[in-house]
Amino acid sequence: MRTYWGILLSCILLSGCGAETLNAIELRPLSSYRVEQDPEILLTKQTQEKLLTYCERRPTDVLPERRAMVAEVTFHHPLYEVLGSKTVKYFAAGDERYLTCANSNELMERTFAVEPIQAYEALEPERFQESNVVSTIEFERIDELKAVTSTFNLNETHEEVISDSVFRYKTPDTGAIYVTFETIRNGRTLDPIIEPKLYPFQSGENEGYVFLTRRADDRLTLQIGEASSLKQLVLPNIYEAPYMKVDPKEEISLKGNHRELMKRIILSDRPIEGDVAEETSLSLSKTYGTVLEIWGHVRRPVTNKMSTRPAEGETRLAVFESDQDTIWLDGPKTQELFDALSHIQPHEKTSTAVKIGDLHLYEELTEQSFDVWKTETELYLVDQHTSQSYELPGNDYFQVIQP
């Protein structure tokens, strides 16, 4: 038995029993950011790192309905806009303090209960005035279509805003509008044709527009959002028709505990006459052909569910720098490289290897850098932070580089 344990210990120490592999990816917070915040607020480097560290935890909280939003800061990648940004908001609710975090590619903010942060606690008392927020979205009818056309720079030759379809909305709290669609045709309700859509909004007072347009090819488009982030849903060809009328509903309020009919669109091969507001969709479809109902439902974040960060949508970047050139790996090559580094053989570089450059990995607001060494047949990476050396499997990542 003593001999057995001796052999086992030797295997462990010498890593000779089976192939040893490691995950070489150990992305670390960026050393610098481009910070966007109120000019009167000064955050030390330590405080910035503390905020970002909170954002990497697993969220377990939701914001109280009575609260004050004290401050907001957005961290941008200093070099590559494609890698996005992270927005952090600081809230006060009585003696409790909360952060919300959202990466630029995420649908929902994530919420964390935190210890008071002195840089924010020292701000003027007015920022800590609390108010009640509710899970309600209010829509206000807009008749001046030019305002929408100019706000979103729409080309009226190719895209016409449909009258009676334009509303300005306000969303006072974190969550999303869950939009579903029902099609009634010739007296019966069809199986779902358009996939439901989730339109998220962040904490605080958000304002934007929702409206319909008809494109030059006669297709309808549902558009919702702000000038900086307009989301579009082009409806299938089944909803093309020479005549169309939007049910002129004046006001809508989505209260968050049930879905509500937001808009009806009547589509027909012949003119649509008179007031359709009092007629049922079933009756209208028998007369004119097709009715599209657009339903909305406010959804609030739920602890450990809607608050969690999504599993997909992360943007990664790999950049190789040498004395001669800078190379940005394309999408598939970047994925291959990350896959290789997540299951790689540790190996000391040979004395004949020559340094040919530096490899920088980026994902959102994190980075990792390697020295790249090469012989005629091998490629080695040495982590600049840990000095751990790895042998990279043969690949043409840097095929333009000569040893």
What does this 3D model show about the protein?
- There is one protein chain.
- The protein has helices spanning 2-14, 45-55, 118-121, 145-151, 281-288, 331-341, and strands spanning 28-29, 34-37, 66-76, 85-93, 96-103, 110-114, 131-132, 137-141, 159-161, 167-171, 175-185, 188-189, 197-201, 206-215, 220-226, 229-234, 243-246, 251-254, 260-268, 289-299, 316-321, 326-328, 345-346, 354-363, 366-374, 379-383, 389-392.
- By secondary structure, it is mainly beta.
- It folds into three domains: 2-24 and 315-392, no CATH class; 31-132, no CATH class; 137-299, no CATH class.
- Strands 1, 21, 22, 23, 24, 25, 26 and 27 form an eight-stranded antiparallel sheet that branches. Strands 8, 9, 10, 14, 15, 16 and 18 form a seven-stranded antiparallel sheet that branches. Strands 2, 3, 4, 5, 6 and 7 form a six-stranded antiparallel sheet that branches.
- The longest helix is centred in the first third of the chain and has 13 residues, at 2-14.
- Residues 1-18 have low confidence and may be disordered.
Strand content: 35-45%
User: Ends: how far apart?
Assistant: 51 Å
Q: Tell me the overall shape.
A: globular
Number of distinct beta strands: 27
Query: Helicity level, as a percent range?
Result: 10-25%
C-alpha-based Rg, rounded: 28 Å
Report the major sheet: 8 strands, antiparallel
Give the mean pLDDT.
84
Tell me the domain tally: 3
- Helix-strand makeup class: mainly beta
Tally of contiguous helical segments: 6
**Would you identify the regions where 5 or more consecutive residues have pLDDT less than 50?**
1-18
